[in-house]
Write a structure and sequence with these properties.
mainly alpha, 434 Repressor (Amino-terminal Domain), Serine Threonine Protein Phosphatase 5, Tetratricopeptide repeat, 18 helices, about 0% strand
Length: about 350
């Protein structure tokens, strides 16, 4: 039997979404250490044919070969619904049937949570791989995962239903964020609406606050600081019930919105509060999954970002310099903060 663990890899899943058979076989072998000859026995296709697929000499066309590869590589069940990516408008919008499934949650029944737990692990892997796999490439995969989660809701109840709703909300938030990065603000807000509603239904306070914080971020990014501040304040309204990391994220967002409105002292105070809260949860196990990144290094960088936002250029430059070297393994983030560091330095000396 094939090993399911390679299928947590975002690059392998992205290749599956594109039906890039050469990349699928090569990436699978890279992850498992299998040779082409060893893979031959696993998928029932001879080694020369595997070599030709990987070299793109042969194209996989027949249903029989697709089935052999699918079964032989142990493609997870939730990927069976992944369809070709056509970038049509309907691809980006949340379908009506998702709302129907949520509306029928909290019924009586028993649900096997093993698939949902697996999907939760996979989503956590995606979050940690943003420098190596673009969210755009995983869009259809995550949509298929969301279907696999929500299809279980009509037969769930109690804490199981709450867990599934929370996982569905995490997926909707992820989809919203990717849509926003792809400059599709309408779908981004539509997915965020779903995420927020599902998080509220699940009683997930941390996630509800976080999604509200993302809504504030979108408003600030669109040049609407008044709406951003009002929304950020709402995200912190029940901050006493949040975990330290979630409360830190909410305080930081409110500070950025305040800074955009010229409330510099308020922004500085919120920056200190956000840093203190983040440092109370230094280990990933102490933070919600979507805040895996808010370690002490990122917390210090966020404080530098606040100094940048209120134009305390020397403080910003010093803050970036303190932590930049610890981001070498994250090239995209390192490039972002390096640019800010250089800009803050130039403004300090001018």
């Amino acid at each position: 039997m094939s090993d399911p663990r390679p299928w947590t890899d975002p690059q392998l899943r992205a290749a599956w979404a594109k039906r890039d058979w050469a990349r699928i076989l090569k990436r699978y072998r890279d992850l498992t250490g299998l040779t082409q000859s060893q893979l031959e026995a696993q998928i029932g296709v001879n080694q020369p044919y595997i070599s030709n697929i990987e070299r793109r000499v042969h194209r996989v066309k027949t249903a029989a070969i697709v089935e052999r590869i699918t079964l032989g590589l142990g493609v997870p069940a939730e990927l069976s619904g992944v369809s070709a990516d056509d970038d049509s408008p309907t691809m980006w919008q949340p379908p009506v049937e998702l709302r129907e499934r949520i509306a029928h949650s909290q019924s009586r029944g028993r649900v096997d949570m093993s698939l949902a737990n697996w999907i939760a692990d996979v989503l956590a892997t995606y979050r940690r791989a943003e420098d190596n796999a673009k969210g755009r490439d995983l869009w259809t995969v995550v949509r298929s995962q969301l279907d696999a989660v929500t299809e279980r809701l009509p037969d769930s109840s109690g804490k199981v239903a709450d867990g599934l709703l929370t996982l569905a909300a995490e997926h909707a938030h992820w989809l919203s964020w990717v849509a926003a990065q792809e400059n599709k603000p309408g779908p981004a807000l539509a997915w965020l609406d779903l995420a927020q509603g599902w998080a509220i239904d699940a009683g997930a306070e941390d996630l509800t606050s976080w999604v509200t914080r993302v809504r504030s971020y979108y408003a600030l990014d669109r040049g609407d600081p008044i709406r951003a501040l009002r929304t950020a304040e709402l995200g912190r309204r029940n901050a006493g019930g949040l975990t330290p990391a979630a409360a830190s994220a909410a305080a930081h967002q409110e500070g950025l919105a305040a800074a955009a409105l010229g409330e510099r002292d308020r922004a500085r105070s919120l920056a200190d509060e956000a840093l203190d809260l983040a440092l109370r949860a230094p280990d990933a196990e102490e933070r919600p999954g979507w805040l895996y990144w808010l370690d002490p290094v990122r917390a210090q960088l966020q404080r530098a970002d606040m100094a940048y936002a209120v134009r305390d250029w020397s403080d910003a430059a010093a803050g970036y310099a303190q932590s930049l070297d610890q981001l070498r393994e994250y090239p995209r983030d390192h490039a972002y903060y390096s640019a800010r560091y250089q800009d803050a330095r130039s403004r300090t000396s001018s």
